[in-house]
């Protein structure tokens, strides 16, 4: 394991986003609760800002109004001129970038924690966008240990073709919390409480880092996004098969060559024909039907994480 130490400035400004998708209720309710009374998220060395990122979608209990906010933080949208004629979420991109960014600048917030729910059986999942950001890697390592014996998976979305421009990417350090299964527009107390606990551990980590604690080198198991898998379709583009019952609800479990993957409407099984075991997740996610996505295939790997400490500059 590397003996290098990474030094970071204090993470003094942290935002917690709820309602990036307006029908994912745990984050919306937690952020609304903390906006009224922030004692639970208050830390002495951190300014924590709870924030509803897509209020119009929250009002309608819809994923979005015009376009998916969590795919909209592109250079094109950030730099585009224009005003009221732009799609609502593009206007929101510009507002969020002004408040918490600018993206990629020294003035951007130190950390954005973006709260999401999934209809898939993913449990508590931490989503990272970089395998080289040792601050967020140490954060998820801390959260995983604090959550034990409850499992907490780490999804790494770092992929040249499959990367997308997330709401949280405005910050210097971006992390998403995805907790499920929970239907859209519904609250489940166990999912709500799991998300609440993950946020607590994340803020505790940041507070300890800011107070001068050094975090030793470690290893973190991650599941790196590898491939998107669509549903089988007929010649008209209509779905012709469902997720197989033996795959349904089996997020993070190995999918081996020859294992059932889809079941056609007349009962025929379609098997996985890859070269070796992979790990599907976001299986049969309700929000991904519009994205032509049945599940995401990931590959399991272990990352070596450097020690980190607060910069003295």
Automatic annotation (TrEMBL):
Against Pfam families, the record matches this protein to: AstE_AspA_cat, AstE_AspA_hybrid
What's a GO cellular component annotated to this UniProt protein?
Answer: cytosol
Q: Which cofactor does it need?
A: Zn(2+)
CC cofactor note? Binds 1 zinc ion per subunit.
EC number(s): the record gives 3.5.1.15
Entry superkingdom: Eukaryota
Cite the InterPro entries for this sequence.
Answer: AspA/AstE_fam, Aspartoacylase, AstE_AspA_cat, Aste_AspA_hybrid_dom
Molecular-function GO terms, alphabetical = aspartoacylase activity; hydrolase activity, acting on ester bonds; metal ion binding
Please give the SUPFAM superfamilies that the UniProt record associates with this protein: Zn-dependent exopeptidases
Q: What class of enzyme is it?
A: hydrolase
Q: Where is the AstE/AspA barrel-sandwich hybrid domain?
A: 219-298
The record's similarity note reads: Belongs to the AspA/AstE family. Aspartoacylase subfamily.
Entry protein name: Aspartoacylase
Q: What is the lineage of its organism?
A: Eukaryota, Metazoa, Chordata, Craniata, Vertebrata
């Amino acid at each position: 394991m590397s003996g290098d130490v990474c030094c970071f400035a204090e993470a003094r400004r942290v935002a917690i986003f709820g309602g990036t998708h307006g029908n994912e209720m745990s984050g919306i309710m937690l952020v609304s609760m903390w906006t009224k009374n922030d004692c639970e998220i208050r830390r002495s060395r951190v300014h924590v800002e709870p924030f509803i990122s897509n209020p119009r979608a929250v009002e309608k209990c819809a994923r979005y109004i015009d376009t998916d906010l969590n795919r909209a933080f592109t250079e094109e949208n950030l730099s585009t001129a224009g005003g009221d004629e732009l799609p609502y979420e593009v206007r929101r991109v510009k507002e969020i970038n002004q408040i918490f960014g600018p993206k990629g600048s020294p003035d951007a917030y130190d950390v954005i924690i973006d709260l999401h729910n999934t209809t898939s059986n993913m449990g508590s999942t931490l989503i990272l966008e970089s395998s080289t950001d040792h601050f967020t890697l140490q954060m998820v390592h801390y959260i995983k240990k604090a959550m034990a014996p409850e499992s907490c998976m780490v999804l790494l979305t770092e992929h040249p073709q499959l990367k997308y421009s997330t709401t949280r990417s405005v910050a210097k350090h971006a992390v998403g919390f995805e907790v499920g299964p929970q239907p859209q527009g519904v609250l489940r107390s166990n999912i709500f409480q799991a998300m609440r606990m993950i946020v607590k551990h994340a803020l505790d980590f940041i507070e300890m880092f800011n107070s001068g604690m050094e975090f030793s080198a470690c290893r973190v198991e991650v599941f790196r996004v590898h491939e998107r898998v669509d549903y089988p379709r007929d010649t008209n583009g209509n779905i012709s098969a469902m997720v197989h019952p033996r795959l349904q609800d089996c997020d993070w479990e190995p999918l081996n060559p020859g294992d059932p993957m889809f079941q056609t409407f007349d009962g025929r099984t379609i098997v996985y024909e890859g070269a070796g075991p992979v790990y599907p997740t976001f299986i049969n996610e309700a929000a991904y039907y519009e994205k032509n996505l049945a599940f995401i295939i990931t590959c399991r790997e272990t990352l070596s994480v450097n020690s980190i400490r607060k910069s003295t500059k």
